[in-house]
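dumping this here so i dont lose it
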């Protein structure tokens, strides 16, 4: 497994910003990174923060000058940006373009590249991200392992399922928000609710990570639910009053959107 000597990003939005910051945080994982000038404010900030960043107004120059090219473009304009570019056979291309299939990407690229798809999340900026990668590719996985952990998917179905699961991020924060609202309604100042809930949820996430892959989540739920206790009460109400069904139905609808 090896990292590219120079990686280029076509499209400079939030995910590019997060990936570049993660890759170039000390100790930097790469000697050089090229980014497209668009968006100007993000590319300028990256160049100001990292001497390894080169900003180019020419997307073809990025393709020509880099071992690996990351396509980080909004899906609405992806075809018009990618199709005019000339890629090299054997070049590594990583697409983080949402809701865009391999067949369309390959058609736009028009060369026999090593194409992989990935779903990086904002936490890659802190090298704490978990990234789904499809198909398995050791160099792409090595890149995202620097940024946290890569999960290589054997099939498109696996990749789509993880993409659907990633749609729970807003719900995670929404649960904390609704709980903070409830606490405030009952008289607890909002800042105290936030100060309590954020470390509580972080501690639970750490517990799940430390438990390893062989600890079923439902068993951990039971460990945190004393028989007849408060945690058991809340989970039982959530499960029997439609919470679990609503979650499954929402994930089914998201998966249907992703699968097209």
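and the seq i came up w/
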């Amino acid at each position: 497994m090896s990292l590219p000597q120079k990686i280029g990003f076509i499209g400079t939005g939030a995910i590019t910003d997060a990936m570049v910051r993660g890759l170039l945080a000390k100790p930097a994982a790469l000697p050089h990174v090229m980014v497209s000038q668009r968006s100007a404010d993000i590319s300028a900030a990256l160049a100001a923060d990292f001497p390894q960043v080169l900003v180019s107004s020419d997307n073809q120059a990025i393709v020509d000058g880099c071992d690996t090219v990351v396509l980080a473009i909004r899906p609405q304009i992806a075809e018009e940006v990618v199709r005019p570019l000339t890629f090299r056979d054997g070049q590594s291309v990583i697409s983080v373009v949402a809701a865009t299939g391999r067949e369309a990407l390959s058609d736009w690229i028009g060369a026999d590249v090593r194409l992989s798809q990935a779903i990086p999340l904002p936490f890659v900026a802190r090298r704490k991200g978990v990234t789904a990668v499809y198909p398995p590719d050791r160099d792409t996985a090595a890149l995202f392992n620097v940024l946290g952990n890569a999960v290589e998917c054997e099939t498109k179905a696996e990749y789509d399922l993880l993409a659907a699961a990633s749609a729970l991020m807003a719900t995670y924060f929404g649960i904390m928000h609704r709980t903070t609202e409830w606490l405030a309604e009952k008289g607890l100042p909002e800042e105290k609710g936030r100060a309590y809930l954020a470390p509580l949820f972080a501690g639970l996430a750490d517990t799940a990570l430390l438990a390893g892959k062989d600890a079923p989540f439902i068993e951990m739920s039971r460990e945190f639910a004393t028989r007849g206790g408060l945690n058991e009460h809340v989970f039982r109400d959530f499960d029997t009053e439609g919470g679990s069904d609503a979650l499954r139905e929402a994930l089914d609808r998201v998966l249907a959107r992703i699968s097209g």
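The mean pLDDT is 95.
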